[in-house]
Each structure stands twice: as C-alpha cells, then as structure tokens.
Design brief:
Elements (H helix, E strand, L loop, with lengths): L1 H18 L8 H8 L5 E8 H4 L1 H12 L13 E9 L2 E12 L4 E8 L5 E9 L4 H5 L1 H4 L7 H4 L2 E2 L4 E2 L15 H20 L2
Antiparallel strand pairs: 1-2, 2-3, 3-4, 4-5, 6-7
C-alpha cells in the first residue's frame, strides 16, 4: 500500500512540475552581453504569483492586462525568471520573457528594459508562426523601443487595437492573428514586470 501511495505522490509531483512552464534564456551569458553591452554581470531570481499574492494578485494583473490568465503558460504556479542586469554595483536594467500561445504554437517573447520600465529591445527566443521572418525583422521589433506599460494601457487585448503610440504599430503579416498574440504577450510581460520591479 505504501508503495502505491509513494508512486501516486510522485505522479502528482511530476504533473505539477510539467504544468508550470517558465521562460528562461537559452544562453544567459551571451544574451545579456548582446542586450546590455557594457554590463558586468547579472543576477537571476525566480518569481511566482502563487507565493507573492495568489488569486488577489492575479486579479490585479488580469485587470491591468484586460484579459484573463488562462492555459498552461499562465497558471498561478508558473515560475517567472527575472534577470537583473548590473554595471559594477549599479542596476541598469532587466530581461524578462513570457510564454504566449500563438496560432501555430508557443511564442517566447523577451523584453530588455531599463530601470524605468522602458523597452530597450523586444525579441523572440521562439516563434511558431508561418510569418516568423516578418515578426523577427528589426523593422517590426524596433517599433517597441521606448514604449512602456504607460503606452500599453492603450492596447485593448480583447479588440486587438491600440491608441496613441501603439496605433502606429502595424501587423507586418496583415491578417495573421499571431500579431494579436504578440501584442498581448508584450503587454503581459510589462504587466508582470510592473509587479516584479515595483514600478
């Protein structure tokens, strides 16, 4: 009987580990050097909504996002990996990525941000889209530079439309719904970073 209980517990643990899908840099040393030239080091911390406020915190984040967190990538126990970037002892920015469901599969959307929450770079570590080349082009990703959560409050996730500076960001693949997924992913990233960095 004990053996079956232990097996059942191991199975439950493996299911919960599998269910929590984080988003880590594939090569942190190389990526940090590329995204923050002149930086001298970084610290990695692991954040978790369940431990940091649970359902109350989740409700606040969903209100800022304008959409519900749902699915495998957005459960309360998902581990979020935050890279704090330093030059000497001075904190100069952050790198943070999120998993976002796209039309053809998962997207991994990373932002590098300064200490005030402005986007320095947006890039895809993974993108499952027939129009991946158009979305990865700097002509598209450079449009996010300088934007912050303040700008993304004008992005309506439900309607996939924005105002202000966001109105000028156009879908390089016309009617491809991955554009809406990308914009939601960027906004979700900023919503989470607002909490993690305390902006």
């Amino acid at each position: 009987m004990k053996r079956y209980t232990i097996l059942a517990l191991l199975l439950l643990m493996s299911i919960s580990i599998w269910a929590a899908v984080g988003c880590d840099l594939n090569d942190p040393d190389k990526d940090v050097a590329r995204l923050f030239p002149g930086s001298t080091g970084y610290k990695t911390s692991y954040r978790n909504l369940s431990r940091e406020g649970g359902k109350e915190l989740l409700a606040r984040l969903e209100a800022r996002l304008g959409d519900k967190f749902s699915g495998l990538y957005e459960t309360l126990d998902v581990p979020y990996t935050l890279y704090s970037i330093y030059k000497g002892k001075a904190l100069i920015g952050y790198i943070h990525g999120v998993n976002q469901k796209g039309r053809y599969g998962g997207l991994q959307i990373f932002l590098s941000l300064n200490t005030e929450g402005k986007i320095l770079n947006m890039y895809f570590q993974k993108i499952s889209s027939k129009n991946a080349k158009a979305y990865k082009a700097t002509s598209f990703t450079d449009q996010f530079r300088g934007l912050s959560m303040k700008d993304f409050t004008a992005w309506d996730v439900a309607k996939a439309k924005g105002a202000g500076k966001l109105a000028s960001i156009s879908n390089p693949a016309k009617d491809d719904p991955d554009f809406a997924a990308i914009m939601r992913g960027v906004k979700k990233n900023l919503v989470l970073m607002q909490h993690f960095a305390g902006w």
